[in-house]
Amino acid sequence: MNKDLTVGSPYTVLWRFCLPMFGSVIFQQLYNIADSLVAGKFVGENALAAVGNSYEITLIFIAFAFGCNVGSSVVVSRFFGAKNYGEMKTAVSTSMIGCAVLCAALMGVGLLGSDALLRLINTPAEILADSELYLDIYVLGLPFMFFYNVATGIFSALGDSKTPFYFLAVSSTANIAVDVLFVTAFDMGVAGVAWATFLCQSISCVLALWFVFRRLKSVPSEGKMVWFSWKMLEKIAVVVVPSILQQSFISVGNIVIQSVINGFGPSVIAGYSAAIKLNNLGITSFTTLGNGISNYTSQNMGAEKMDRVRAGFNSGIKLIWTLCLPLAVLYFFAGRWLLYLFMNDAASGMATETGLLFLRIVSPFYFIVSVKLVADGVLRGCAMMVRFMIATFTDLILRVGLAILLSSTSLGSTGIWLAWPVGWIVGGGISLAFYLTSVGRSRGTVKTA
């Protein structure tokens, strides 16, 4: 069901729109969490380290898919809010075609360069073969991940956050069962968790595409549909390229950090791998709310309702802090028991202590990074991509630079974890300042840049 986000109480509209998106994030993260959980519990610590090590490289591919999701979603929602359904359909088909070309290029890079990428980040010899095997299978499933992301972006643009949730709820739950089946019954090891993700994600992708095309067919539009438009591609690229660059640089930064972590051995890698999955569950949830606010902002800009954009920011802060509190408390006080889910037993001393320390350092600062992500959502919805990128890159550069610097001191690996809060504080301050000066205090329309 399509939903107009330009009417009704901003808080209620955002809550109803974003709640299924939170559910989708949880199930989306179950794909990666399940891989690490099954690898760690049923194969061993080195398998957990191999999956976690490969995960940092897969984030580059996820960055491109996420950029396609955001770009198509923002542009489609703008036309939907303006009731220009013909241009909206052209934006959808142009997004699909552009996504196919980009995905094909990335598959070539991934299949030919996985070994080089893993060696570049100083992957320990004992986990290199499993890391490469997992990564190769993951790359084969890129088309499903890309088209699924574009499809969910389109659903969000139409104000429908429930349909993607249903797909993910079924497929990610099935993924856990297939993970265990392939690893325990068929003794497939790391390859089993990779093929399980491939299989379940492909099914959810096909279903999502089928439903999105049915939904678009029911939307009335005048004249003959234009399947591809260079002008439309340019509009989409204005949002896609900065979003991809932002996410890609974050991924590259994470890879640099992973290479530093790899110097501390498999136990630290395994502890970080488990903790970062839990952390990413929280950060991705916050990011999803930011994406929802981007759709909300874009629809209301299309309808020329800037007062609702500002009201949406305030409502978004209330919503995201409602999510921050239980996560921060859970990770800080119950992190050890959550980490045991990924370990063979409670005796995985160094790995567990590493993960626990990371969670206790970063979780209190969720309240700061969440404000940044809400402000970023508004900036992105207003197509203010230059401001958006400045705030993001400042956070990233600080985190990577400090991780390298502090890890070489007596702090060791603890220095790496301390870099997260510093980057979030500075980046969050910049994002909030950009919002206040360009949107929060403006009247009428705003300039996009």
Give the strand content: under 5%
The radius of gyration computed from the alpha-carbon positions, rounded to a whole number of angstroms, is: 21 Å
Head-to-tail CA distance between termini: 32 Å
How would you sum up the major sheet?
none
Helix content: over 70%
Task: Please provide the count of β strands.
Answer: 0
The helix count comes to 14
Structural class: mainly alpha
Average of per-residue pLDDT values: 81
Shape: globular
Spans of at least 5 consecutive residues with low confidence: none
Order of helices and strands: HHHHHHHHHHHHHH
Organism: Candidatus Faecalibacterium intestinavium
GO biological process, one term: monoatomic ion transport
InterPro entries: MATE_fam, MATE_MdtK, MdtK-like
Pfam families: MatE
Task: Summarize the structure in words.
- With 449 residues, the chain is mostly helical.
- The chain has 14 helices and no strands.
- The protein has helices spanning 10-43, 45-81, 85-120, 125-140, 142-157, 162-185, 189-217, 230-262, 266-302, 306-340, 349-362, 366-381, 385-407, 413-440.
- The radius of gyration is 21 Å and the shape is globular.
- The model has no long low-confidence stretch (mean pLDDT 81).
